[in-house]
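Worked example 3 (structure in, sequence out).
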């Protein structure tokens, strides 16, 4: 496997993790909407969205699609 292929595989794995984290955070936000933790969950969602965007951009730079 070339370095680029390894990079793409690693990025793909990280993208999948970020997407799963977002899914879980959104589910948590829905379930906990009355608990008062909305700000913390919202911040975590924003951080994960930013991470996902960076990963998707890097993946595209390496010549792959997602």
């Amino acid at each position: 496997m070339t370095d680029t292929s390894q990079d793409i595989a690693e990025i793909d794995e990280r993208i999948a993790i970020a997407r799963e984290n977002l899914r879980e955070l959104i589910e948590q936000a829905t379930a906990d909407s009355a608990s008062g933790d909305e700000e913390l969950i919202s911040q975590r969602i924003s951080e994960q969205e930013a991470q996902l965007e960076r990963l998707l951009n890097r993946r595209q730079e390496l010549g792959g699609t997602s």
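Notes: The chain has two helices and no strands. Residues 15 and 52 are 6 Å apart (CA to CA).
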